[in-house]
Amino acid sequence: MFTHIMVGTNDIARSKKFYDAVFAALNIPPSEISATGRITYGKHGARFIVTPPLDGKAATAANGGTISFQADTPAMADAWHKAGVENGGKTIENPPGVRQTPVGPLYLAYLRDPDGNKLCIACKVPA
């Protein structure tokens, strides 16, 4: 459905530390800062890119926006959440756990990255 998602950052080194940690919990390898100053993570052909804004202005978080990643298990979701908090993220909303959604029960956890972007981890609840 999408080819990539890109978020802005005001501190690429801080973002690299945070995203390397949360993606490691999802078995996605760390990224290097490219010559263009971006970090790119990929899995199954999709890309997640972190970059300083090209217009030179400060990066800001989307108001009302959420980016959700998929975990294979609730334990993987918990590891993602813990890695995020330990690397500059802030836990938001309810603690990680099962929530009823329009598509059935999901195990969910939410974080704000160091630049304020709202992130979610989602896992189908095992039957």
Automatic annotation (TrEMBL):
Matches recorded under SUPFAM superfamilies: Glyoxalase/Bleomycin resistance protein/Dihydroxybiphenyl dioxygenase (SSF54593)
Biological source species: Acetobacter fabarum
InterPro entries: Glyas_Bleomycin-R_OHBP_Dase (IPR029068), Glyas_Fos-R_dOase_dom (IPR004360), VOC_core (IPR037523)
Pfam family, one: Glyoxalase
Entry protein name: Glyoxalase
Gene3D superfamilies per the UniProt record, alphabetical: 2,3-Dihydroxybiphenyl 1,2-Dioxygenase, domain 1
Domain VOC, chain residue ranges per copy: 1-124
PROSITE patterns, sorted: VOC
Lineage top rank: taxon: Bacteria
